[in-house]
Amino acid sequence: MDNLFYCLDCRLLSASSGLCPHCNSEKLKELTRKAPVNVIGSKLKGRVLKIQMDSVNVLFVDENKNKYIKEFEFSKLRKVL
Predict the structure, then answer these.
(1) Which of 50, 42, 43, 53 shows the shortest CA–CA distance to 69?
(2) Using the 8-state DSSP alphabet, how is residue 12 labeled?
(3) How far apart are CA 39 and CA 13, in angstroms?
(4) Which of 19, 24, 27, 65 could be 8's S-S partner, Cβ–Cβ 3.0 to 4.6 Å?
(5) pLDDT at site 2
(6) Cα angle at 70 between 58 and 16, to 5 degrees?
(7) Which of 49, 47, 14, 45 is nearest to 29 (CA)?
(8) Dihedral of alpha carbons 31, 32, 36, 37, sign
(9) How many angstroms separate the CA atoms of 62 and 5, rounded?
(10) For residue range 14-59, what is the model confidence (pLDDT) as tens digits?
(11) Are 4 and 16 in contact (CB under 8 A)?
């Protein structure tokens, strides 16, 4: 399992733990399993299931309690605070 980090200011994910590549903030925290994330550009919200090299498996639950898993690049996700 690889490590991903999210910025506390802009909430976007990055692979480095130094500075945020989007807003140059130093406030980064590690993304953990079961953390809520949002797919950028949609209203889909889910939880992190597995972190791989450059992708993240996200678990979604719809209104009918159906569960499904989708794989996204980490640049397409945003942390929900």
Answers:
(1) 50
(2) B
(3) 11
(4) 27
(5) 76
(6) 50
(7) 14
(8) positive
(9) 27
(10) 988 889 999 999 999 999 999 999 999 999 999 999 998 889 999 9
(11) no
Sequence-ordered list of residues with C-beta below 8 angstroms from that of 46, at least 6 positions apart, any chain: 36, 37, 39, 58, 59, 60, 61, 70
Instruction: Decide: residue 58, CB within 10 A, 0-12 exposed, 13-18 middle, 19+ buried.
Output: buried
| Burial class of residue 71 (count of CB atoms within 10 Å of its CB; 0-12, 13-18, 19+) | exposed
Q: For the chain, how many residues are written?
A: 81
Q: Which phi-psi region, left, alpha or beta, contains residue 34 (left: φ > 0; alpha: ψ -120 to 50)?
A: left
Question: What pLDDT shows up at residue 68?
Answer: 95
* Structural tokens at position 58: 């996200």
3-state secondary structure 49-73: EEECCCEEEEEEECCCCCEEEEEEE
